[in-house]
Design a protein that fits this description.
about 260 residues, mainly beta, 14 strands
Length: about 260
């Protein structure tokens, strides 16, 4: 990206920040519409300034009941074409969630240009703490180690996606949710904006568009808007996810290419 490092944190955020289960005391929970599949995969095309910038694959599966029951999520994000020539990105993010979709552990392996970082975050619900550790993968030097206060149940920037898919959050309604990246914990507002018919590579869908308020000095300092379009049916598929940032960076859009049958 000319004049700016291609920071994939907003891109990772695209796939989830808004979609988490804990509601504020002032908000009545919407009625559930169903349960998210215990296993699945979604493939996305990533666009930046209307250019094909990369691909993303999101996988999730239930963990074995004999172990700690819950869900494991994996996101692979890879740049292509012009963006790869400007700034190559190859990131893998994994999150371990409890049965209530509260985050327990996350791991990010980020290869971005000459920058190679490994970040792990452990969330302790009893101590109500998050322990953040970021290392340089080449030198093993610690870049940042930090401990943050969190609620007993908090949500990472990926795992919340699966809960919103079970809700019937109608246009005009909003919820507040606790979200943490391990460095900071916030209460984020999510609003259902309206119904829209949109076309993506996977087809044409009737959707509901949501906005999550995590930029502009909420969880992230950068000014911006985060939108997610979920199909307006029982599947509640996230068919488009978009971050609109300042003009210098522009808009990053994830368009659903296919839903893999598992």
């Amino acid at each position: 990206m000319p004049g700016s490092r291609f920071d994939t944190r907003p891109a990772l955020v695209l796939l989830a920040l808004l979609l988490v289960p804990a509601l504020s005391p002032q908000s009545a929970p919407p009625a559930p519409t169903g349960q998210s599949p215990v296993k699945g995969a979604l493939d996305y095309i990533v666009e930046w300034r209307l250019v094909n910038a990369g691909t993303a694959k999101l996988n999730w599966s239930a963990t074995a009941p004999a172990a700690r029951p819950g869900t494991e999520i994996h996101l692979h994000l890879e740049s292509t074409g012009l963006v790869s020539r400007l700034y190559k990105v190859n990131d893998d993010y994994t999150a371990d969630l409890s049965g209530e979709l509260c985050v327990r552990d996350t791991h990010l392996s980020a290869h971005e240009g000459s920058r190679n970082r490994e970040t792990t975050v452990h969330f302790d619900p009893e101590a109500k703490k998050a322990s953040y550790l970021e290392r340089d993968m080449q030198t093993r030097a610690v870049v940042l180690a930090k401990e943050t206060d969190t609620p007993a149940c908090v949500h990472d920037v990926i795992g919340g996606l699966f809960f919103l898919r079970t809700l019937n959050l109608e246009p005009g309604r909003s919820i507040e949710v606790p979200v943490s990246d391990g460095k900071k914990e916030v209460s984020a507002k999510i609003s259902a904006l309206g119904r829209e018919s949109i076309k993506v590579p996977a087809g044409t869908f009737k959707t509901i568009r949501y906005e999550a308020f995590l930029f502009s000095n909420v969880l992230y300092r950068r000014d911006g808007h985060l939108y997610v379009w979920l199909t307006d049916d029982a599947r509640r598929l996230p068919v488009r996810i978009q971050v609109r940032l300042q003009f210098a960076i522009g808009t990053i859009t994830f368009q659903l290419e296919k839903e893999e049958k598992t």
